Every structure is written in structure tokens, then in C-alpha cells.
Amino acid sequence: MEIWINPACSKCRNALALLDEEGATYTVRRYLEDVPTTDEIRAVLDRLGLEPWDITRTQEADAKELGLKDRERWPRDASGREAWIDALAAHPKLIQRPIITAADGTAVVARSEEAVRDALSR
User: Fold this and answer.
1) Does the global pTM surpass 0.90?
2) Which CDD domains does the annotation name (predicted)?
3) Where are the chain's structural domains?
């Protein structure tokens, strides 16, 4: 199990505390320092069963600068998928957090206690 975190994020700290409380074995990836490649982002999206715009923090300053809410420039379909993935790799702060990759090959965006427990049960 791996968890992608930003240590400044309270939801990430809460997820780590719950993993520790439950005695889980996991590795931590500080994804702002150890930035995921586009291939790693594609792989985690496949594990999540989501699209890149589903895990993008669109309220971040970088998102506003890139104009990610402009659906003509940033289509949310197959034609825009690679551009979104490239944006996440270039601006990792835009990646929703925390993300836990579970032992069964799936992943969850673990923003709630329920989601963390879901990852633990897999």
C-alpha cells in the first residue's frame, strides 16, 4: 500500500494517523517532491477508475492560471485526457490528495475516514 500525500494537508495527516492506528503497512510518497510521471498518473487513474479531471484540484492557483475550468480549452473527454495528465505531472499540486493504492490493485482518493477504511479492507 502506498499513500500519496502533501504533509501540509490535514486530510493527508488524518489518513496517515488512521493507517497508523490500524497498524497498516504502507509507504509514503510526498508527491510534491517525488512528482509522479505521466505513466504513473495514468496507472493510478486506471486503479481509481477515474479520469484526470476527476482528481484535479480546480480551485488551486495553478488551475486558475491554466484556465482548467474552460471546457473548450480543456475538454473533459478522450480528446483532452492526455493534456490533463500532462498538466497534473507538470503541476502536481493540482492532484487531489491523499491517494491510497490498495493491495488489491485498486486505489482510492482517501479524503474521508470511510475512504481510508475502504482502502484498508481491500
Assistant:
1) yes
2) ArsC_ArsC
3) 1-31+97-122, 41-94
